[in-house]
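Figure-free illustration: sequence to structure, shown twice.
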Amino acid sequence: MTYEQQKRILDLVVATSLIIAFLPFWLIIPLLIFLDSGWPVIFVHKRVGKNGKDFELYKFRSMVLNADELLHNGNHRLLRKFKRGDWKIAAKDDPRITPLGRFLRSFTIDEFPQLFNVLKGQMSMIGPRAYVRKELEEQSKKYPETKKYIPHILSVKPGITGPWQTSGRNEIPFAKRAEMDAAYAKKKDIREDLLILWRTPAAMLSKW
């Protein structure tokens, strides 16, 4: 059995198991989001997937309704802060996040809907970060030494969790993150996938 076949089986088993295990969340969380800040409860965001193909990534909405517009057109100071931080800043520094959204993010609950991206074959449980195209383009210009890593990163499916998510997340600069993602993509080791999966719960709880 090839690595890709092993990984697809792992993805289907883990994603399906988690969807069933957290069944109450699919009822309670959407209701709480709706009561807190209205509809829609799912945030759909375009990301770059395998082979550079765009796909729609799902999340429970943790921000105000016009979050993207506020960042790119309404709050230039916040946009500069994002760029200085390699497009990652702490949730406490982002005024667009709702009070409920801060709770969801603190336990990574907002990312649960990505399990359906996994079932659809757009993502894997373990893989490089699902980058926003504009972010990837700007960061590779800011850090030209990372351009050699991009083809490797885009040669595999992005993951819900991965090497950078279990090794420091926001504290890791883009250049190091890209290097880690590329090294993971080249390795293709199911034992590495299982190790990252094992480390993920502790990494999630460390955010709180």
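We now fold a second protein in the same way, so the two outputs can be compared directly.
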Amino acid sequence: MESLIKNTFSFFYGENYNRYLKRWLDIIISLIVLTIFSPVCFIVAILIKLDSKGPIFADVPKRVGKNGKLFKMYKFRSMIANAHYLLRTDKKFKKLYEEYKSSSYKLKKDPRITKVGKFIRKHSLDELPQFINVIKGEMSVVGPRAYYPDELEHQQEEFPQTKKLVKKVLSVKPGITGLWQVSGRSEVNFDKRIEIDSVYIKNISLWSDLKIIFKTPLVMLSGKGAI
């Protein structure tokens, strides 16, 4: 009896939870969110097209997923078209790019962001299409941040002490939300972010995921720490 209880509880913690129950939780939540927020997604898509030229979804390179596998992340476009490419190649953005790299790949004042983009980023509405990635099995609802390959490489050079933690973080699927997002979001630097994500992975469980999921709407509504 004791063994049965122990095995039952282990299903909600650690590797057993991550391998089995977490996937079902991801699918159920994603289907619910996409159904409820489909009118919001429709309105956001129209506003993006009316506000600026370019595609509805962000035209950005692939991200680093589980075990280093690259995948295309779906996000509503919140910047001018080709913003990612222009930042790295256009001479007028040279100083901005240096600031971007030196501040853990985040900018508090980014001239590339559109009017609609500023609003949807503040309330994380630009991230709603990522639930498609979750259904496809490329992401999880809760998990570490999904980095760009060049960003991850540069940040490890900047913070070499994080290399072991990065390897641990890449052992799971990246998430739409996570422990660092509800702890400080864009206000924390890479080294601290990776540390927080590694703590999440070490203590991964149904309970920890549910706590993060329930905290996320409050963070979205407040827009605290969003960039």
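Summary for the second example: The chain has a mean pLDDT of 88.
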